Amino acid sequence: MTYEGYTTFKTRQDGAVLTVTFDFGPVNVQGQEMLEDLTYLAMRLERDRDVKVVVFDSANPEIWVCHYDTNLLKDMSIEAVSRQDAKLLDLQSVLERISRLPQATIAKLEGVARGGGHEFALACDMRFAARGKFKFMQMEVGMGILPCGGGASRMARQAGLGRALEIILSARDFDADEAEAYGTINKALEPDEIGPYVDALAKRIALFPAESINACKQAVYESIDRPIDDALKAEAYWLYQATSKTPAIKRFAEADAQGMQFDIENQRNWNDLVVAVQDIN
Fold this sequence. Notes:
Strand order of the largest sheet: 1-2-3-5-7-10
CATH topology of the largest domain: 2-enoyl-CoA Hydratase, Chain A, domain 1
CATH architecture of the largest domain: Alpha-Beta Complex
Number of helices: 13
Oligomer: single chain
Helix content: 40-55%
Strand content: 15-25%
Number of domains: 2
CATH superfamily of the largest domain: 2-enoyl-CoA Hydratase, Chain A, domain 1
């Protein structure tokens, strides 16, 4: 499956890792063109089990993804609607589709991400940011609206209630170290460290079964806001989705036959052992 023909980003595939590099001058604005490109990208990825990890980065040294194109908001109704008549915005729908991809998704943040750009980063599974280069902001309250690309919904899940409200209501820039402390990114890294770190993580994840990656993702997302009984049922459901489509049972049987789990050296070296068992298919 080829990934080409996009106008707002370029793609590069290295084995099971697909890198999507935004390059839509001058500021990678998040307009209709980018939403259409992301929709077509998602359509292909949803059917692809050869790509296991998607890394989103930017060709612009200052900006990862700019905010949502405000031209798309000027024609919004100034009349309040009922809750049942409220419909999802295109931005919400597209970013939710990105969040549900079967692949692991990583935002490699080496520039500014504000508004919808930051909401896109929140829709990715993991986020890593470069110190001195990354800033994020949710400026919507100052414009008279609210984060409307999943920011209000995902922010509290990432950062907790108080921090989410501080971020949203202050409408100020936060740097990489603040983002790490608040929990909106996984890790803040020096500019010369972020590339090797993300590359190594992506390549390691890409070693593992595609259906296991998907099952892990879906179980976490499905259970995060459910009562524990329902969450445990979700875990059990996705466990059997994984075992039905991966060599897990064969790997367990082989490990048992070789007495692997009772070997003290194996217990000391699981970091390498989990890679070695990928040869059992």
